[in-house]
Amino acid sequence: MFVYILKRVLATIPVMLIVAIFVFLLLRLTPGDPAAILAGDAATPAQLDRIRERLGLNDPLLTQFFTWMGQLARGDLGVSLLSNTSVAGMVADRLGPTINIALMTIVISVALAVPMGVIAAWRHRTWVDFLVMSFSVLGFSVPVFVIGYILIQIFAIELRWVPVQGYKDPSEGFGAFFSRAILPSLTLATIYIALIARMTRASMLEVLGEDYIRTARAKGVRENVVLFRHALRNAAVPILTIIGTGFALLISGVVVTESVFNIPGIGRLTVDAILARDYPVIQAMILLTAGIYVFVNLLVDVSYSLFDPRIRY
Amino acid sequence: MEFKSKDFSNAPRVLKIRKLKVGLTGRPNAAPVLDGIDLDIRAGETHCLVGESGSGKSVTSLAAMGLLPKGALEVQGGLIDLEGFEITSASPSQMRELRARRIAMIFQEPMTALNPVIRVGEQILEVLNTHSDLSPSEAKKLTLDMMEQVHLPDVERIYSAFPHQLSGGQRQRIMIAMALILDPDLLIADEPTTALDVTTQLQILKLIAEMQERHGTAVLFITHDMGVVAEIADTVSVMQKGRIVERAPIRELLTDPKEAYTRKLLTAVPNLAPRPARGDVAEKDVVTVQGLDMAYGGGGFFRKSDRVKAARDVNFSIPPGRTLGIVGESGSGKSTVARCIMRLIDPTAGKITVAGTEIARLSRRQLQPHRKHLQIVFQDPYRSLNPRWTVARSLCEGPINFGTSRDEAMTKAAELMELVDLPRDALDRYPHQFSGGQRQRIAIARAVAMKPDLLVADEAVSALDVSVQAQVLDLLDDIQEKFGVAMLFITHDLRVAAQICDDVLVMQKGFVVEHGPAGQVLSTPRHDYTRNLINAAPGRNWDFSNYRALDHAPAPKGAIA
Amino acid sequence: MTEFPHARRSAFQVLTGLFSLPPGARVGIGPVIAAAILVIIVLASVMAPLYVPYDPLAMNAMARLKPPSEEFLLGTDPYGRDTFSRVMTGGRVSLLIGVGAALVSVTVGLFIGLVAGFFRAADSVIMRIMDSLMAIPAILLAIALVALNGPSLGSVIIAITVPEIPRVVRLVRSVVLSAREEPYVEAAIALGSSMPKILIQHLMPNTLAPLIVQGTYICASAILIEAILSFLGAGVSTEIPTWGNIMAEGRTYFQIKPGLIFWPGLLLSLCILAINLLGDTARDLLDPRMKKREG
Amino acid sequence: QEDETTITAVMHSGLRVLDPVITTAHITRNHGYMIYDVLTAVDADFKPQPQMADWEISEDNRTYTFTLREGLKFHDGAPVTGADVVASLKRWGKRDSGGQLIFDVTASLQSPDDKTVVWTLTEPFAPLLDVISKQSAVPPFIMPARVAETSADETITEYVGSGPFVFNEEEYEPGVNVTYEKFDDYVPRDEPASWMAGGKVVNVDRVVWTTMPDALTAINALSAGEIDYLEQVQIDLLPILESNPDVTVETRDELGYVTIGRPNHLLPPFDNKLIRQAAMAALDQESMLATMQGDPAYYNVCGAIFGCATPLGNEAGSEILTGGANIEKAKALLEEAGYDGTPIVLMAPTDVTSLINQPVVAAQALREAGFEVDMQSMDWQSLVQRRAQQNPVAEGGWNMFFTNWMVPEISDPLINVMVNGRGDDAWFGWPTDPRVEELRAAFVAAKDDASRNEIAVQIQEHVMDNVNYIMMGEYLIPQARRTAIRNMIPSPVPVFWNITKAAE
Ligand SMILES: Nc1ncnc2c1ncn2[C@@H]1O[C@H](COP(=O)(O)OP(=O)(O)OP(=O)(O)O)[C@@H](O)[C@H]1O
Ligand SMILES: Nc1ncnc2c1ncn2[C@@H]1O[C@H](COP(=O)(O)OP(=O)(O)OP(=O)(O)O)[C@@H](O)[C@H]1O
Ligand SMILES: [Mg+2]
Ligand SMILES: [Mg+2]
Ligand code: NI
Questions:
Q1: Chain A contact present for D350, CB below 8 A
Q2: Local structure of D54: helix, strand or coil
Q3: Are residues A34 and A181 in the same domain?
Q4: Which of these, B280, C138, D174, D252, has the minimum number of CB atoms within 10 Å of its CB?
Q5: What Pfam families does UniProt report for this protein, alphabetically (chain A) (predicted)?
């Protein structure tokens, strides 16, 4: 087990390295000039060039790359070209909101989607199944920002149950956090629920056709025990997998929800940085999100063995 | 051969099925799956249900359990009476109450029938938790007790093992413990031993008999193995196409079958008496295997230790027109040897000479021209033909690879169809439009199309019904006659081996433990392992096709039972 | 009498397999309605230039944000352009993006996947690269790619395609790896068929059915991603109306002119709904396990 | 803590650059006015007024003596000294175009004692006070000498000022939140506040600036009372706020903005004056402004390149722009110039809301006049990089783009970078225009307002003829506040002194 985890962790190194090279090249090939945004509209070309020189943007690409890799190796994420503050600090500030919203989304999604999928599979081809599947297809069909607007309109503007926007850390009181986090989480969860419910249903359908389900029924076990004790655990691996890979979707969704709900998270930070070509920030952010994705999927892989004793490492 | 002969007419009736009709849900006009089944089982009786695949044996048992697949099959008439309780009209919760208490079931595949993610002890315990109010410690004690009764070793450890950590036989014991823990009146066993090798099968059959003795349970035993039937049945019902065509006490059925169908079924069962050996051939051996070793795994950096030595120092040779059988229990390395010879896997060591060429070390490319000398027929007729290809295309693939023109290949394919006794127009059809036996014929035709010198048949008939199996074996015999091809025939069924092989090679754990002419190995085995195998073959003393006991029953001495 | 069965034939079989139901399988009314809706939307979009009343790009500063009327069926947008004309023409581009992204990613993914499944040596390198691509959040990658090439139609399609490719590759590779173990493939080896031949004739057809299913999902999500890219200011230029950028432009008017989001949103959702539903149906029908249970 | 008053304000953009000298970004300038103070400042009548210092001008107009007023202190407690002022002015002089002109004629800038700064010129520079009092784009903010010693090409890393608010570095999140606290030791002037001049009396404890990427969210947040102030409201969204009695919508900055189109004078076809004129004739202010703003109350058809409401503003020769599109004239000009159909590469940003419309409208009008237009969409960052390219179109060059300015940023020929005619040293578009340079020199030398106005008219006429850039009109951006926020002073810079917040 330990050896397996170690191997998996080691295997992420080439992946992250490829991500790093890829991101670096992509960014440097992209037109755009951080010096221009730094200096503002009225700056003259000569002024821009002096700033570029100072920021090291006139160095050859390879030099820039190795400078960056060298910094990374020392654990230094660099300094934002625009705000001149340390990227690590910015990331630290911005990570909290995103992680908290993402966690809440996952909790909500799993709590709703798994039972939905289980029931849909159990009542395969009935109206319950139809309802669940319709919802999950619908969840895929509406752009995230529209869902966000609709939720704001209903719950924040019409009903006035929760604030329109903003973010408060749980340390400032759970109520304050919850009331602001619930709409963005629901917005994000829609697509996630759709994904998980669909996968749960498919996986459960498969498992429900297995012999041991028949065995359990032959023992006279109650239906809910059959579903949740016998079937769900066997269906868990693909569900976990989709929760892991769906995490990428979540990150994409975060970018939009953070805009709509004005949450100071890493999604917005990254988009802003891309639009401003703040290279150190973009590089760090994409490495970070890629790292989170890889880590989550590593966790998922390792957790398989919790659900399926046949999987041993 | 001793048959059971107890009279059950006075025993209380446990299960009574009358005019049972089961059909496809929502399609009352389609041909019914079960059409007017009548069945009686009395306390203590073992009632065997036999018949070809698809005749409705499993459906009958599922109907009795109230477990017909929802949305697919439904009871459309008749009644099922379990000790006065009408099952066809029971509510789901009433049915749940009945199951495990009054009626229990064991399924064929012990691996898939147990939940892979729950500890086996808990799976047994669950029956008690569902149906009784025992305290946890009492329930656990009872469970362990039951596990002792089914002769599981080291019950404390096995209690907390997962199914994949147990052997097939142990898993099936768990199933039996689970089925019998509440002492039901009726035990339904649907092919409980088909997936096990003969020695384990024998133990399980004994166990069921013992439990039946102890608890007085009635048993409905479903099987297609006539040997098993001869061994355990009190009464036999023969099913064909959803009907019961004949019912009789065991001795009567085997000695004096009334129905033509029953006769056909019995005639098809091969004998354990070896076929008469064929005359020696002077020609050079087609294939020679020397010191073949095969170890799986070991490729990775971390896992040098978990190499599986699946074949060790295997030596044999086969002259043209002769058949060598490889027998042995599951996992003994039979397929490994076959796949090495075919070079589907690369042997770790040893020499394989086919038609004069040493092929064990040839590269893919070097091997290509020699491929046509070797062909193989696989066990699973459903997966050995590309489902997307027409039969014609499958048959032409090989010859075209070796330079035959399309038209020529097509003409040959048509001839081959005739050879394997299939209509010519079948060429345009797809595999799913054929039965298993027909597909196996196509697979054989495909192999024969290459005019190979060696034909490897890896369990080529194991998936087939006895009657179909007999036809395919005949076909192989014909082909060998006609083309003089050497054959490597792999099977775990000694009867089949006896019928078709000139020589037999017995494998155990990768080693060859005995090798000799079929007559000698099967009648006077020298190795204990071979003896055990033969002894474990059920109904080995009965000559089914002639409705009488065998003259020269293979009676190895010194065998353990 | 007998003509030689060509490979084309078997691919055709798979396609018809999509529409002919296995015995026992029942397709509800849902997929039929979905197919009908899709056909209507596609036809209406493709033929839009023939019937829309205005040039979808013609601006009219005097007719900004007009409510629906006889003159402007669905009202006008902040540039005074006719929403109806824009929404109907916008469908063409959105669908083009969807279909384009699906085709490109499936084709490229199929090729890479076959190579990865076949060449053991290439496999680990390719899969590491694919893992890396998967790890980069699709939206961020897309924004960066669009920034690189400028927000043209082509670069939006590429930006949507690139993150989808690894998924297709994984799918193809897993199908190839599992199909490799099938006895009929071993039989083909024994019959002396060369590896490329086995790959293309035996293994590739197996990937067709899952790819069709995957393709529908990519198509649906491409249309959505285009909308999100527009929302983030990295979409197709406003000179080319798409459902996505019509919605993105109209999003600030959500409360005062909901029609600007509603109509393109409705068509987009209906379209995606229909495509997804057909994809699901295709999967149910094509999944051999489902077939086994039902047949 | 309980009755601390905080104003939460949503600003037009996120604050990322904290150095108000290195950048011309408005948000950074606004930040500068929060934490820094200036020597002199312009009032609502465009008149320089004392702020940190009074001044005296020598007879020969060559020596300016500034005397710092009492009680000026930096946020770290140190008093403001003449040395700080000198260092700050020098750094500013390296970055600001007006400042550069002054330093070109500077003999010495010294601080004889802690309270005095003496600025000696080699020749008179009449607009000196106007330049150092300007509120845009880069005002000379006074920083401690140690900070001001930072190179002018490098951003400062210490944010200590002597202004009315203290920057809270702890709570600063670049691009998202900035928090300012009242500087208790700030001594305001006694005069009433007027634009940047007068007493900066702070009546609240904290001001928090945030950004909201989504305009609709910001409006909804204001309606719900989650924020107090919205610096810019999209005009089309005003109806949402109108019915809400708790929210007041008004125009704080009456000067507003201009939107302009800039042709590239280096490349064909816009190297041809006639073709530039044709483009100008094809464009129509009214339809562009209407598309951008909708409500006529918020735009102003105005042909004055220095803005219509400024002292120098005049509309000489601008009928071609203000009188509607003249497609006929455009076609005739193109005919005359022998336009060969060379496509106009028009750069169109996709991610800056206030700049999305102009290229789209312009493209349509130009096409109507017979131009071939190749509108290329890109994000603003790609645009700012590309507009610096002098290459031919095929190698990444461009022909035209649009941008916006605040009126004070274009209000005179020294500030307005687009009338710089020094070729490669000029602003993007690089006109080589000796005539305009001549006029600018004359402007600096001019002694009185009358002659300055005279020169401004000449520049206006010249620019209209030569089409250095195309003035597309003025527009206003309303702001919205909770009604409880009172006493905001009208100003082009959103300042937070004088404001009171009543309990709601
Ligand atoms: N779920 C189902 N839906 C439709 N038909 C079914 C279903 N299950 C079984 N059948 C049909 O019922 C018939 C009897 O099947 P059954 O499984 O009882 O055969 P069997 O005698 O047990 O065969 P085997 O020896 O292969 O187990 C077959 O023709 C089969 O096709
Ligand atoms: N691909 C493989 N990798 C690792 N081990 C394998 C592999 N194939 C077979 N084995 C192991 O090799 C041994 C011999 O297997 P083989 O398939 O040859 O047995 P067999 O005699 O054909 O059994 P059966 O009767 O069940 O077909 C078994 O222990 C099996 O687990
Ligand atoms: Mg059966
Ligand atoms: Mg085998
Ligand atoms: Ni034909």
A1: no
A2: strand
A3: no
A4: B280
A5: BPD_transp_1, BPD_transp_1_N
Residues of A in contact with B128 (CB under 8 A): none
- pTM equals 0.83
CB B73 less than 6 A from any atom of ligand 1: yes
Is there a single domain that holds both residue A268 and residue A203? yes
A48 and A146 fall within a common domain: no
For ligand 2, atom 24, name the residue with the nearest CA.
B330
Beta bridge partners of B22: B34, B75
Would A236 be classed as within a structural domain? yes
Q: Which ligand is nearest to the CA of B68?
A: 1
Which atom of ligand 2 is nearest to B296's Cα? 4
A15 and C132 in contact by Cβ < 8 A?
Answer: yes
**A73, A99, A126 - which closes a domain:** A73
| CATH number for A112 | 1.10.3720.10
Report the candidate in C103, C137, C129 with the shortest Cα–Cα distance to residue C225: C137
Domain segments of chain C as ranges: 37-47+82-286
The torsion defined by the Cα of C147, C148, C149 and C151, in degrees rounded to 10, comes to -10
Give a yes or no: residue A155 inside a domain: yes
Which residue among A36, A39, A272 places its CB closest to the CB of D175? A272
In a domain, A243, yes or no: yes
User: With a cut of 0.90, is the ipTM above it?
Assistant: no
Same structural domain, A128 and A37? no
How many domains is chain A built from? 2
Q: Of A21, A45, A73, which residue constitutes the final position of a domain?
A: A73
A248 touches chain D (CB under 8 A): no
**Hey, what CATH class is C37-47+82-286 in?**
mainly alpha
Q: Looking at the partner chain, which of C26, C140, C221 has a beta carbon nearest the beta carbon of A274?
A: C140
Q: Tell me: do A103 and A201 sit in the same domain.
A: yes
Verify whether ligand 2 is closer than 6 Å to residue B491 (CB atom).
Answer: no
Residues A12 and A150 in one domain: no
| Contact indicator for B207, B173 with CB cutoff of 8 Å | yes
Residue A61 shares a structural domain with residue A124: no
What is the C-alpha separation between B413 and B396, in angstroms, rounded? 7
Does the C-beta of B379 come closer than 6 Å to ligand 2?
A: no
With touching defined as 3+ CB pairs under 8 A, do chains B and A touch?
A: yes
10 Å CB burial of residue D392 (0-12, 13-18, 19+) is exposed
Domain B287-536 bears CATH identifier 3.40.50.300: yes
Q: Is any ligand 2 atom within 6 A of the Cβ of residue B331?
A: yes
Q: Write the residue with the smallest CA distance to atom 25 of ligand 2.
A: B330
Per cent of chain B over pLDDT 70 is 96
What separation in Å is there between the alpha carbon of B168 and the centre of ligand 2? 15
Top-confidence range, C231-240, D185-194, D404-413: D185-194
Residue of the CA atom closest to atom 19 of ligand 1 = B54
Phi, psi of D117 (to 5 degrees): -130, 130
For A203, the domain range is: 88-307
Please, which contacts does D144-150 make with residues 24 or more away whose CB atoms are closer than 8 Å? D144/D74, D144/D76, D144/D78, D144/D84, D145/D81, D145/D83, D145/D84, D145/D86, D145/D87, D145/D88, D148/D84, D148/D87, D148/D88, D148/D90, D148/D91, D149/D87, D149/D91, D150/D91
| Cβ pair D234:C238 closer than 8 A | no
Ligand 1 pocket test, pick from B21, B52, B58, B105 with the greatest ligand atom count within 8 Å of Cβ, gives B58
CB contacts < 8 A, C to D, total 84
Distance CA A256, CA C139 (A): 10
Question: Residue ranges of the domains in chain B?
Answer: 287-536
The pLDDT tens digits of the residues spanning C137-157 come to 888 888 888 877 777 888 888
CB contact under 8 A, B397 and C193: yes
Q: In whole numbers, what is the pLDDT of chain A averaged over residues?
A: 86
Determine, for residues C192 and B401 on separate chains, whether the beta-carbon distance falls below 8 Å.
yes
- Contacting partners of chain C (3+ CB pairs under 8 A): A, B, D
pLDDT interval class at C105 (50, 70, 90): very high
**CA of A43 to nearest chain C CA: how many angstroms apart?**
23
The tokens 């009126």 sit on which residue?
Answer: D407
